[in-house]
Fold this protein.
Amino acid sequence: MAIGSALEVEMSDKLDNYKAKRDFSATPEPDAEVGPAPEGPAREGRPEDTAPGAGEAPRFVIQEHHARRLHWDLRLERDGVLASWALPKGVPPDPKVNHLAVPTEDHPLLYLDFAGDIPTGSYGAGTMMIWDRGTYDCEKWDSREVIVTLHGQRVDGRYALFRTGEGRWMIHRMDPPQDPEREPMPEQLAPMLATSSEVLPGDDGRWGYEIKWDGVRMIAFVAGGTVKLQGRRLLDATARYPELRGLGDVVSSHEVVLDGEVVALDHEGRPDFGMLQQRMNVSEGAALRRVASQVPVVYMLFDVLYLDGHMTIGLPYTERRRLLESLSLSGPSWQTPSYHVGDGAALLDATRARGLEGLVAKRLDSVYRPGRRSTSWVKVKNVNRQELVVGGWLPGQGHRSGRLGALLVGYYRDGELRYAGRVGSGFTDQELDRLGDLLGPLARATSPFTPPPPLPPEVARQGRWVEPTLVAEVAFSEWTHLGTLRAPRYKGMRTDVDPRSVVRESAAKAEPSEDEG
């Protein structure tokens, strides 16, 4: 048999797995045609001294594959086929982080140019796009390690693929980061908080206005197709909101940290904190699947804190909003609501007419200050709302006999829990039962309030005290001159808030931003 024919047979054998996994009458992927054989005799395996013809640099392609799970496919031209690895988190841009690389079957050379939709039911079903392509220099190639220098439009540098176990490889960038100013994505970020005010700041063109969403604050860390959610207490909340995993597929190869509010919408499209309560404490199993189908959530995005290797918190608000909007994040479970410059009073009236919570005014030149409550962000509510710490409760009477009658709540000042009043309305029967289960194990003998609550003696004798570890959201009409709530109404529990961070939100006038100058 001629050498050329023998090579064609050997190369065809390399594509047997590729052919066996595909029905070419159904998929648009290229048939398993063998590419031109390299010069020189056929050799066993992929020895280091086998290379393409003289003067021809071997080619590579990286394809972004939106299959059942987003990943990237690295393919290197070698011996007339494309040696392939699936990269679940893509090509590592920094030598400090290695990424998993899963060897897959060799592909035909025609796959260097393939992009399209692989139909449902086919192997690898989903959309395939070319993410990068170019040529490479091969430094080493054996059964345990491959070292190449990629010359692409997006990726340029020296990489090692090395075997760590049976069918398991890793990919490591051997050069410094391609972007010398690249910063690693932060692992945690505390959200910036707004200052309460009774009135909006003056409409002088220096403020942007956003709807105040009635939900739970959430920071999203998105990279390599994965999403991690973090609440205000810096605790992982990813499992509670599975519908937000799809953000990883939409964000694609970007690495981004997003800020926003998770809300549950009623039948008129308004946030309903009571509905959201059903989602906040369920994170697994059949109960999560059931409540997620009954009470879907939407992530309302309003800021970007990190993007593709660079922290953005030092940029002005307007620039961060521009970057956020450039990501075009709009889908079934996430939205990027617009903001408006000027007309704050008219917008506040519109939120009141729609039954929304209020507005947040943000200085257009303000930077993002993680974990800080700043006058650069001012919130004005249509109905007074306040997070308060539960320090005790009173037994119910009449139809509530044997159950909770009212919560005794307060806030911290100078390190002490100050009494703010009793909350006896707004509870459903189901919530009364749940609160009874929560409060029981927290019982203590003495009051956590300093000074003790000014309750009538006959009421004080009935008081049941608890460790101040629970936080409730309470609506009310106003603060009285005695420092207690007038007409309070229970709205729900806030598992996302640290009790020690709860202070009285005195309405403050917005002052010039500390970010000026």
Summary: DSSP finds nine helices and 28 strands in the chain. Confidence is low (pLDDT under 50) at residues 1-11, 37-51, 508-517. The longest helix spans residues 3-14.
